[in-house]
TrEMBL record:
GO terms for cellular component: cytosolic large ribosomal subunit. CDD domains: Ribosomal_P2 (cd05833). Belongs to the eukaryotic ribosomal protein P1/P2 family. This is Large ribosomal subunit protein P2. Residues 86-109 are annotated as: Disordered. The lineage of its organism: Eukaryota, Metazoa, Spiralia, Gnathifera, Rotifera. Keywords: Ribonucleoprotein, Ribosomal protein. Plays an important role in the elongation step of protein synthesis. Transmembrane segments: none annotated. GO terms for biological process: cytoplasmic translational elongation. It comes from Didymodactylos carnosus. Residues 100-109 have a biased composition (Gly residues). PANTHER family: 60S ACIDIC RIBOSOMAL PROTEIN FAMILY MEMBER (PTHR21141), LARGE RIBOSOMAL SUBUNIT PROTEIN P2 (PTHR21141:SF5). One of its GO terms (molecular function) is structural constituent of ribosome. Residues 88-99 have a biased composition (Low complexity).
């Protein structure tokens, strides 16, 4: 996915034909070592397509992957993903007020 994202960034940035070098430059700017074969595969798959076509085909692939891997179709919703919020965990101290237990590990108190 990172190679497709780098290709799209290059395309959106005004490069009508992103190359291996442009993808490698984008990936290395965020500390990712470029695998030339993966980058080449993305270039071949996306060559001659505009941004909308690439994104449309990618969404179709993502939808098919979600039904295969989970068995449940997950619709792609617009907007940010918000994970479910769990209630905070209350912790009760296991150290007694007399200084024994974990709090008095080294005998200071």
């Amino acid at each position: 996915m990172r190679y497709a994202a780098a290709y799209l960034l290059s395309l959106i940035g005004g490069n009508p034909s992103p190359s291996l070098q442009s993808i490698s430059t984008i990936l290395s700017s965020v500390g990712i070592v470029c695998d030339e074969q993966k980058a080449y595969n993305v270039i071949q798959a996306c060559q001659g397509k505009n941004v909308n076509e690439i994104i449309e085909q990618g969404l179709v692939k993502l939808e098919s992957m979600s039904t295969v891997t989970t068995g449940v179709a997950v619709p792609l919703l617009p907007g940010p993903y918000l994970p479910p919020v769990s209630p905070p965990i209350s912790r009760q101290s296991s150290v007694s007020s007399t200084g024994s237990g974990v709090g008095d590990l080294f005998g200071d108190g």
